Amino acid sequence: MGNVKCHVTNASESLELMSQKEKLSIFYLNAHCYNVSQKDEEYRACLNEADMVLNDGVGVDIGSQLFGFRFHENLNGTDHNVRILEMAAQAGLRVYLLGAAPGIAITAAEKLCAKIPGLQIVGVQDGFFEDSQAVVREINDLKTDVLIVGMGVPRQEKWISQHFAQLDVKIAVGVGAFIDFMAGKFPRAPKMMINLKLEWMFRFLQEPKRLWKRYLLGNVMFFYYIIKNRLTHGESK
């Protein structure tokens, strides 16, 4: 999509690739991520160097059409990360949760293990740490296979990219607020709003003071960047 790559795939194909590759970095691209990438070259490089970038949300779906293609389905992280963890449980892989406020990841781990039979969450760490090397050592010492990192965009992508070579994991995923959602900190949108592609509006109404710039001004900026990149780069290949 202009100067940012995003893979055209579906849920089953992406999970199959994850099961085949020895090591993968996986990020998501939504309208907010796209906006951040246009102002942050380091973050944009993280996206373009990642092994897999998955489309998340109605914004990038509409934007893709301006570049002459369409995504097969919406791979929003709230749903697709659960699929990744279900795959991990079936394969006997060990999972580590990194991110969110103190105490949140522990609650999320408990609820995820209750939700997904056989899921092994071997460690958790909140996102408020100073010694990254100590975190990397713990992740490796626990023989982690799947690393779930929820520290917000662009911090989580930069952290994964900076430490990926040191991490002895099979999969590292940047998941945004997924850990918060799984802990029950924020309720999920009603099914009707999800089907109508209005989940973003439900999320905005939960935290309007914090999210108004992202969703109101951000939507305008997203289409500005999309049109600008379409004129500059032409259709995507």
UniProtKB/TrEMBL annotation:
The keyword Glycosyltransferase applies. One of its GO terms (molecular function) is hexosyltransferase activity. The keyword Transferase applies. It comes from Paenibacillus methanolicus. InterPro entries: WecG_TagA_CpsF. This is N-acetylglucosaminyldiphosphoundecaprenol N-acetyl-beta-D-mannosaminyltransferase. Transmembrane segments: none annotated. Keywords: Glycosyltransferase, Transferase.
